[in-house]
Amino acid sequence: MTEAELILQKALVGSGRLDSSQWNQIQAGFRNRAFFSSRVAEVNILAAMRDKVREYSEGGKDLSKIRMEFRKELETLKYSPKPGEEGTIHDLFSQARIDVIIKTNVAQARGYMQYAEGMSPGAFAAFPAQEFTRIAHRRNQREDWPQRWAKAGGKTYGGKMIALKDDPVWERLSVFGNPFPPFDWGSGMGVLDVDRKTAIQLGLVSDEELRGKTAALREKPLPDFNRDMQATVPNLRSDSLCGKILKREFGDQVVIENNVVHWQDNLIRDVLAGRINKARLGRTTPEALKKMTGKLPQEDVDAFKSMNPSFNRTTFQQHAAKHYGKNEKRLKTNIPLEDADYDLMPAVWHNPDTIYPGNDHGAIFEMQTFDGNYLQLAVNAIKGFSSYYKTKIPLGAAPGNSSFIP
Amino acid sequence: MHLTIKIPPAQLRDVLPSERELAQAAGRGVSNIVKRRLVERDRRGRSDGLPRTGYYGDAASGVTTEMSGKTALITIHKEGVALHYYGGVVYPTDGHKALAIPKVAAVAGKRPAEADPDRTKFALVWPKGKTTGTLRDKETDEVVYLLVPKATIPEDKTILPTEDEMFEAGKSAMEAIL
């Protein structure tokens, strides 16, 4: 799996009002699998960011070009920084912010890849330890790493910060809670392997212990970066502040049980692929209800307020066959839905830009995407979700100019 | 005389690493020496006086080893590393007539279109008959970018270890686990 694929698998998670320090409190196992940016709630902006991170990781475009393209997409999405935050790290147009987003995500994907390779049985047996050291120059380098290393329980050998690869010191050292670089935002610190002979000479491990550890790695390889979408968070309860924040931001995509957060990743893709029968996306938001008030009959607004609709593959396909199956013209103007579009469907339900009234208790929830197109989710106040479209023109500008793609 | 000793595969596995594990060790050994060389290069800094960007360090962070059966493929995920290693000529693309080489720290790592999106800050100076031009700061007349029709990057094999060094690194890693 390439780093670009790792990045694309990350679930889009609007962080709402959480800032990076609050995110740091949430365990890495969960956050690694989510694509987020501090205080960015708009999932369509996150989708644009994720796409740019993927492009950068694939090479071929320099960071300057990526930044310019991303700024254009932000303009398309009508983003503007809050008054007083222009040019600061909170401003998504700023170079500093874009660089942090892109470099941190790429660095984490690369850090994980190097870590996973180093924990393969053969690589671990030959290089069981690593030295914490500066890998890349940074203009403003942190000087307190030796203190942080000691505080995390790390030991030094001849002035070098060295530990076994499976030592918990690495996770304690990282503000992200990861055992791999980067260990802090924008940090140029990283790791260099230490060979078997040196690790044994330093007394970090014995030859016999190494055989045991290597055998254990053969039996139980590392989980994939994006697989088991769950993380243990100490003292986490559904009714705790952290639990409430998670539920508020993620809705039914998270389940909290016994201090473990379970993430239902890529729900829509899973339904369409037949991996699960249906998915509930939770209730829509007060912001969405405000947008429909006055446009839709009040009884429908009340129905939308209380409904927790499920997404069902069969219903979608039947709807497509009934309404668009024979409409060649519309099928030709379809914009194919891609994985990222399916990832955005919960966001269209929760935070649409516009809601249009439809026929027979129906409504269209619409959200603009960073590529200048529009996602439209048809929802019926009685029956629930019925279809999902992608069009070039917003419904308000050209009613009916959309077509469904099953 | 022939002597045949049969060891059940499960027991053999406990004693000897598999071929795949040997390849993992060798691959890691090679990627380690590549990574270390790039880190050393990063520590040397730049010769053009512009701020250091951590380019080679970032390249070191992008060294990965991909296993395919018994083969390990080492990749450096960083744009431009191959160009520096092999050398070559860079031409402008996307319809541009010249390459813009940053000459001051404020625009390092930025294209002119990003540094001056409204085209109000820089003035184009390209004397007739000359092959190079400049973008100058309108207020200070300082040269901000040098504009050239092409740039020749010299071959620099020292950014990576030699093939012999890589072979030795892979061999040593395998020997360590045998």
Oligomer description: heterodimer
Q: Write down the domain tally of chain B.
A: 2
Q: Could you give the order of strands across the largest sheet of chain A?
A: 4-5-3-6
Helix content bin of chain A: 40-55%
- The rough form of chain B would be described as elongated
Give the distance, in angstroms, between the N- and C-terminal Cα atoms of chain A.
28 Å
Uncertain residue segments of chain B: none
**Order of SSEs of chain B:** HHHEEHEEHEEEEH
Q: Helix proportion of residues of chain B, in percent?
A: 25-40%
The count of β-strands of chain B is 8
Descriptive report:
The complex is a heterodimer of chains A (406) and B (178). Chain A folds into 4 domains: 1-118, no CATH class; 120-221, no CATH class; 230-265, no CATH class; 279-391, no CATH class. Chain A is 41% helix and 16% strand. Chain A has helices at residues 3-8, 20-24, 28-31, 43-58, 63-76, 95-118, 121-126, 145-151, 169-173, 196-201, 207-219, 241-250, 267-272, 286-292, 298-306, 313-324, 328-332, 339-350; strands at residues 11-12, 34-35, 129-134, 156-157, 160-164, 189-194, 230-232, 254-257, 260-263, 278-280, 310-312, 354-357, 362-368, 374-380, 384-391. The model of chain A is unreliable at 400-406 (pLDDT under 50). With 178 residues, chain B is α+β, with helices and mostly antiparallel strands. Chain B has 2 domains: 9-86 and 156-177, no CATH class; 88-152, no CATH class. Chain B contains 6 helices and 8 strands, in the order αααββαββαββββα. In chain B, the strands form 3 sheets. Chain B has a 4-stranded antiparallel β-sheet, with no helix packed on it. In chain B, a hairpin with a 5-residue loop joins β6 and β7. In chain B, α2 (19-44) packs antiparallel against α3. Chains A and B meet through α5, α6, α7 and β6 of A and α2, α3, β1 and α6 of B.
